[in-house]
Design brief:
Elements lengths: L1 E5 L4 H12 L3 E6 L15 E5 L5 H8 L4 E4 L12 H19 L3 E7 L9 H14 L4 E7 L2 E2 L5 H11 L2 E3 L7 E2 L2 E2 H12 L7 E5 L5 E2 H11 L5 E3 L3 H14 L7 H9 L23 H7 L20
Parallel strand pairs: 1-2, 1-4, 2-3, 4-5, 5-6, 6-11, 7-10, 8-13
Antiparallel strand pairs: 9-12
Length: 318
């Protein structure tokens, strides 16, 4: 089966690509660039890499030609220059849908977010919801996957938590009263996306996907500390403190320790979908708990943050 993946060099896209490639599927990998944390992500046998941005409808249409299905995994959690929530999540999704229609793609699987919803005051949440509506009204068969907080090799959560612990042994709670999360293993998510794309399941459905275990982020940080053999001191902090830090990190870091959209996400919890969804079948329900064994499988190379993590020094590399 020939399948296209947008955002193929990103965390979800590259894990999905490797799984589908291992099964012998022909892949077209679309990405604006290559994630420097894993430049081998697009170097996959039986896959063709197309360096195309979502603002280029012609390139997208050409890439989708002959594809049975499209996994639309492209997305951002902060705005940089022309890469805004409007251009990537909304206009980009519209371009993906129009290209898919023109070349006869049969199925689109959209990666969305668990708490995406309209009229909530968060451009991230609202633009993700707008992308969902574009897909639902496209006239194409679709599956919308509303995922919670995802972890695994090359993610944001384990990568930044572990590097933080190697830099300073502190963790600040997001709010004096924490909201819970349900960490979702990337392997569980890929299994659901594969079922939608390859097995033609979850047709015209919007499904919520969260991990098997509920806990606070501070407990997750403790488990990461245990898996990395680091000590950790948990400190209570108000939500506004994290918004201030996020503003600083977005300005100074190539990949922010935390972005403003992520602070909003953590401040309201990542457990239940914000809108009505279709139930996930029992055989696709995630089963992996956030154990130290699971954590170790997804940890990056140990080490603290460095000057290479700063935007002004990014050219030096890690």
């Amino acid at each position: 089966m020939k399948i296209a993946i947008t955002g193929a060099s990103g965390f979800v896209g590259r894990h999905l690509a490797r799984q589908l490639a291992s099964e012998g599927h022909e892949l077209v990998l679309l990405a604006r660039g290559v994630d420097r944390r894993d430049p081998t992500a697009i170097d996959i046998p039986s896959a063709r890499f197309v360096p195309a941005a979502l603002c280029d409808p012609g390139a997208i249409e050409q890439a989708f030609a002959g594809c049975y299905a499209v996994a639309h995994c492209a997305g951002i959690n902060r705005e940089i220059g022309r890469q805004t929530f409007q251009t990537v999540h909304i206009a980009g999704t519209r371009n993906v849908v129009e290209a898919a229609r023109r070349v006869g793609v049969k199925k689109i699987a959209l990666m969305s977010f668990l708490r995406a919803r309209p009229n909530c005051g968060s451009p991230y949440h609202e633009s993700k919801w707008a992308a969902e509506e574009i897909i639902r009204n496209s006239g194409l068969d679709y599956t919308i996957v509303k995922a919670g907080m995802i972890y695994g090799r090359g993610d944001h959560m384990l990568d930044h938590l572990s590097h933080s612990l190697h830099t300073l042994p502190f963790f600040a709670t997001v709010g004096f009263k924490e909201k819970p999360i349900r960490p979702l293993a990337i392997d569980d998510l890929v299994r659901i996306l594969r079922a939608a794309l390859v097995d033609a399941r979850l047709n015209r459905q919007t499904v919520p996907v969260t991990g098997a275990e509920q806990l606070n982020l501070s407990e997750a940080a403790r488990r990461v500390a245990g898996a990395t053999s680091r000590r950790i001191l948990i400190l209570p902090a108000p939500v506004w403190f994290h918004f201030v830090l996020a503003q600083i990190f977005e300005f100074s870091m190539t990949i922010p320790l935390v972005a403003k959209a992520q602070v909003r996400i953590l401040s309201e919890g990542v457990v239940e979908p914000a809108t009505s969804c279709d139930p996930l079948p029992p055989d696709l329900t995630p089963t992996r708990r956030f154990t130290e064994e699971q954590i170790r499988q997804g940890l990056p190379e140990p080490g603290p943050f460095s000057l290479a993590d700063l935007r002004c020094c990014a050219s030096y590399g890690k």
